[in-house]
Amino acid sequence: MENNLFEIPAGLNKKFELFQPLYSGETIEIERIISEGHATPEGSWLEQERNEWVILITGNAVISFSDGRDFVLNAGDHLFIPAGVRHRVEKTSSEPKCIWLAVHF
Length: 105
Known about the structure:
5-stranded antiparallel beta sheet; 8 strands; mainly beta; about 100 residues
């Protein structure tokens, strides 16, 4: 695996986001996510068992919560998503690609 957050692997499949574990311990997991025009399928929601903190390293994205809140994220913006809270990715930029750093705990 690359040791640089900005290095994009050759042959990235545009149909799927890329999830790369960077560290995994008993109570914490850190991963890099690369998105390129991806969104949560229409009518679907994400709901996780653990808290998640994400920072958008490059690109821009929109995340919506089931309570009606929307967050527009640009490079450097971060967001805390509590466990059990329904949310969805409305859109991610293609150019530049979105590089996320996500911490699950």
